[in-house]
Design goal:
213 residues, 7 strands, binds S-adenosylmethionine, methyltransferase, Methyltransf_25, SAM-dependent_MTases_sf
């Protein structure tokens, strides 16, 4: 075996170990706290590719992920961001936070609650956000919590900013999902939807702009 082949095999092994660690962390957190995670596995690369499209590629944008989990959306976001940008993840799960800090050193990880969004941004000297990308389990949240987080996300957005929310397509038809959809309609002037079928279950993207203040 050549040294190059040896190196190649080493890399494949490292990637497999990192993936395994990602799935273990995600699954363990989901088992301990199913309502907080709202999923059994991280979202697919197909979802991540679509989500990343809202990320500005010029200037010095600020992107905030609400509920980055093990970071399945984070690599795609990171790849698009120009130098000088900030990529902040606000994550409630302690195991997820440890995983992110170990595997995504280029991200600013805040161990906190999306419900404290404005206070957390203030603490980290952020006064406007160009993209909020959220994959917290919106449809499982009580009405007042949905409202409280959405209002803060809308307030944090820069004038040209975009707010993205992901939900499972079947969850959109539950009472919590319908309430969330209606709440988005009261919060944003523009809402575009997109479904990624290459995820189990399929994912519904809401891409929202121009908060109704
Ligand atoms: C469905 S998982 C999504 C994880 C990842 N972004 C993905 O797409 O695979 C939801 C994540 O949101 C986190 N979460 C739930 N409620 C939260 C909150 N109020 N604040 C911050 N993170 C929260 C969970 O711990 C979990 O990591």
């Amino acid at each position: 075996m050549t040294p190059q082949q040896d190196q190649q095999i080493g890399k494949v092994g490292q990637n497999a170990a990192s993936k395994l660690d990602e799935y273990r962390t995600f699954f363990q957190t989901a088992v301990r706290n199913p309502r907080m995670v709202g999923a059994a596995t991280p979202t697919s690369a197909a979802v991540a590719a679509t989500v990343a499209q809202v990320v500005p590629t010029t200037g010095t944008p600020v992107v905030v992920e609400l509920g980055p989990g093990t970071g399945s959306l984070s690599d795609g976001i990171h790849r698009r961001l120009p130098e000088g940008a900030r990529h902040v993840g606000i994550e409630l799960g302690e195991g997820m936070v440890e995983h992110l800090r170990a595997h995504k050193p280029w991200m600013e990880i805040v161990h906190g609650d999306a419900g404290d969004l404005l206070a957390l941004l203030d603490k980290h000297n952020i006064d406007r956000v160009d993209a909020v990308i959220s994959s917290i389990p919106w449809s499982l949240l009580p009405s007042d919590a949905q409202n409280h987080i959405l209002r803060q996300a809308a307030e944090a957005l820069a004038p040209q900013g975009a707010f993205t929310a992901l939900t499972y397509l079947p969850a959109d038809q539950t009472p919590g999902g319908r309430r969330f959809r209606a709440r988005l309609g009261h919060t944003f002037d523009e809402i575009i939807t997109h479904t990624t079928w290459r995820n189990i279950p399929p994912i519904l993207h809401y891409i929202c702009r121009r908060p109704l203040r």
